Amino acid sequence: MTTSSDRFERILLLVAHPDDETIACAGLLQRASAALVVFAVDGAPPHYGFEKRFGSLQRYANMRFQEASRALRLVPHCSHQRLAGPDGACFVDQHLFLALPEAFASLIPVARQFSPDLVVSHAFEGGHLDHDACHVLATQLARALSLTALEFPIYWRPADHHDVLQQFRDIRPGEFCLRLSEQELDLKKQMLAEYHTQLPLTTVFHPETERFRPVLQSINITPEWSTYPFENRRRPWNAAPFFQKVSEFWQVSIPGTSTNNLSEGDHPLTHPTSRHSHH
Q: How many C-alpha atoms does 112 have within 13 Å on its Cβ side?
């Protein structure tokens, strides 16, 4: 379904990195009465050479958040903030899955203070560890606060290793696509232009495309994922440790949420972690 008229009230948008919110949701943010964008990680993964290109990883992370601030200032009634661990530091890019309880402990008071009526985050698609970790956190948050949740796709790779952009990995009912007005599209392009450090990566996405659908209570692992390592470009991670951490997180008792007494049927993983490869 394609729609051009939808309006939204208070949206909490949880994304992994600065620029994810603009690529996937700039039109959605413009249609919200109020929006809060929450960034989950620092956007500066180690071992990619960014410290050499930008002077240090911290400087690179700061530059990315400055870009996000400039981009989001273009959107009326939109604020943003970052998650942080107990020490006040941002979570490290590509390592969010290792700190899911700490990230959730940072997220839930932010959500309660903002009081959204809709949570939006990444789909669970096997494209980037941080994207999928955000999906887990957002699903947990929506459940804890009894909120409606939507998800959006960004990218993933099938067996032929060809990037699939802005399409859901699986097909199911409920998907809809926002049709951006000319004014909305122009503002989105202005937002994208603020992300100088991400060029030319941001240019491969289609600015006119924004897809969403309701979040399921479970994460469905399709058969081809049994040997699919999560793709992180130059430094791929194995899927097995990720699923183990997700399982541990979902089973932990988190005070103040409704997840303390989950039955086995409520568990988000529909397949055990032992099915995933150990490359």
A: 10
Lookup result for tokens 């990995």: 169
The token pair at 120 is 């939006």
For the whole model, what pTM was predicted?
A: 0.88
Per-residue pLDDT reduced to its tens digit, 8-43: 999 999 999 999 999 999 999 999 999 999 999 999
Of 4, 1, 16, 253, nearest to 133 by C-alpha is 16
Enumerate the H helices of the chain as residue ranges: 20-30, 50-54, 57-72, 100-114, 129-145, 182-193, 239-251
Q: Which domain holds residue 180?
A: 2-275
Q: Give the angle subtended at the CA of 6 by the CAs of 19 and 10, to the nearest 5°.
A: 60
The amino acid occupying position 131 is H
Domains: count for the chain: 1
Confidence band (pLDDT; 50, 70, 90) for 239? confident
Select from 112, 100, 122, 103 the least CA-distant residue to 144.
112
State both tokens at 163.
Answer: 């990037």
114-117, long-range: CB within 8 Å, 24+ apart, which pairs? 114/10, 114/12, 114/36, 115/10, 116/10, 116/11, 116/12, 116/36, 116/147, 117/9, 117/10, 117/147, 117/148
> pLDDT digits over 126-161, tens only?
888 899 999 999 999 999 999 999 999 999 887 777
Q: Indicate which CATH number applies to the domain containing 102.
A: 3.40.50.10320
